[in-house]
Amino acid sequence: MTSETFPNRQLYQFGYCAVFARGLAPAELLARAGGEGLHPVALTRTESGLIEARGEDIDVDDLPGVDLDQLHGSGVLASEGPVLRAGEHEGWSFVIEPEGSYLAADDILTSVSRQTVALCLRDSESGSCWISYAEDGEILSSFDPLFPDGDYGTRPQAFAQIAGHAAAISNGDRAEAYANAVRAIQQRLQCMVPREADESRLLTVKIADGY
User: Fold this and answer.
1) Verdict on whether the full-model pTM lies above 0.85
2) What are 115-153's pLDDT values in tens digits?
3) How far apart (Å, rounded) are the C-alpha atoms in residues 210 and 159?
4) 90-125 as b/e, with b when 16 or more CB fall inside 10 Å?
5) pLDDT value for 2
6) Residue numbers of the chain with a pLDDT score lower than 50
7) How far does CA 82 lie from the centroid of its chain?
8) Would you say 103 and 111 are in contact if contact means Cβ atoms under 8 Å apart?
């Protein structure tokens, strides 16, 4: 996948999990993915990574422009749990989790897709990848792009007609199956997000004990 397309390994070298949802505000997407009672704080990808590295040792000089009182109240400084950052681009919201697999859970995808549609993309550090798609709480398709015939969704053919990824996989290099499938799906669904959309300050939460 090109570096101009979000998400990708140039931005998240140790892997990522991302969920896209059409027509939801980022705050609503975070609430559906992480539960109620969250207190998001706006952080860039760099700021979020620094917080993960420094934890409660972070100070005001490390994060110019960030309200440390708000940061402490948000729960982002908790020692354990997945970090989620949410933004939006042209009618779609996205939430990105560096490295982890919290967002890949089926119940999160079904929750996020209520009364809309949602796409989950996972590219793990180990090299395993997974793609899932849901409509109004039903997971139509859920598969490893290296083995697209082994789809665990309820209506994989319906998704294949929507997304057109089967041809992208079969006509391309097998080693690029995930990248080719994601590119085709994002183009069809029109949830192409430029990398710049992830570089600004986005609503950020940490799900305490989420793993």
Assistant:
1) yes
2) 999 999 999 988 899 999 999 999 999 999 999 999 999
3) 30
4) eebbbbbbbbbbbbbeeebbbbbbeebbbbbbbbbe
5) 46
6) 1-3
7) 12
8) no
Reduced to 3 states (helix: H, G, I; strand: E, B; else coil), residue 137 is: coil
pLDDT of amino acid 153: 97
Distance from the first to the final alpha carbon of the chain:
28
Q: State how far the alpha carbon of 192 is from the alpha carbons of 70, 105, 189, 196, in Å.
A: 32, 23, 8, 12
DSSP 8-state class, residue 79 = S
Listing from the earlier edge strand, what are the strands of the sheet with 41-43?
A: 41-43, 202-206, 83-89, 92-98, 15-22, 117-124, 129-135, 138-143
On the question of a cis peptide bond just before residue 7, with omega within 30 degrees of 0, the verdict is yes
CA distance 202 to 204: 6
